[in-house]
Amino acid sequence: MKKINGHDPVVVVIQLTGGLDFMNTIIPHTSDYYRDARPTVGISSNDVLPLNDSLGWHPATSALKELYDNGNVAVVQGIGYENSSRSHFRAMDIWHTCEPTKIATEGWLARVTRDLDPSGLNPLTAVSFGRGLPRALAAPGVTATSVGDLDNFGLMTKVSVEQERAQDLDIFKRMYTPGVGTGIVHDYLAQTGRDVLRGADMLKDVPSQYTSTIEYSDNSIAKALRDVARVHTARLGTRVFYTQHGGYDYHALQPETHPRLLTELTEAISDFMADLREHDAAEEVTVLVFTEFGRRVKDNGSGTDHGSGGGAYIIGEHVSGGLYAEYPSIKPNDLLYGEDLQHQIDFRGIYGTVLEQWMAMDPTHIVGGQFEQIRPYSLSV
User: Fold this and answer.
1) φ and ψ of 240, to 5 deg
2) Domain residue ranges in the chain
3) N- or C-end of the chain: fewer Cβ atoms within 10 A?
4) Domain 10-367 is in which class?
């Protein structure tokens, strides 16, 4: 496998839970259809940050726009899949398993982890920051370390680590038993987490080894990305990082909530990339930002409801910045169900893009087939 500056390529996944409003992040502000559809949550042309002649960034995304202007952000427009689900649970499950038509038993990043470390030698090959193991990293026989608080994780006693592991697995059990059945969940719980104590021991010295001039904000996604930076720069062999940022299900109060979340997210990403550069550790990292669906075209008077045709973002030093795929039409006659953006590119093709062009892996068995890819990398491994 080709290395980058002597290091293996790494992917950092950021999950935006609830359904980010793509239309109010990359905004078709010159469109009469947009202005008519969104009298409450719409953003004025006077306020957007210019992107091109027809699109603009939300004014709260200035930190990400700067990375975009520097050529480090690929915006994937209209990402989704056929017959998009409007259910949070089902839609997220589809993105986690790459199975839109059936309930699957393995997460796509768990398959990645198994391919990267078939013998399970390193419990830190995949690390998730946050409580509860995401479905994307779950599969029988695959170890992924879930860290709630890096500063305390390595200092925990054997009993307390086991208690935290039990709590995380209980969260997993309660979430997924209704979907996949008790047998599969029991099999998974019986095999997973066997190396959690070894992982904790490997992580215990990470906080004390890390110094940085970057001052992250005091919010969940900033803290998680700071933890990613600390573990990545410790060079412990982690190839897959997973983080989550919640609160995007804004049926109400969207004009207040959306800017706050975008500010938290984009500033955290900007600080994270600056931190990696300061440590000469950015070259081998790509960041994938996704959400389970977009929002409906028309606002509901206070927010927006579940829709489709969302957006994703690929960020990194070797990303060729720009717009990829096509912005979905917002003309009423072109809308899915008469309400939603039509998807333009299958999300499994974007996973495949990252896996094949960045991680140098065959994505076919991981994403369940061959799907159209984009070409966002100036350097492929």
Assistant:
1) -130, 120
2) 10-367
3) N
4) alpha beta
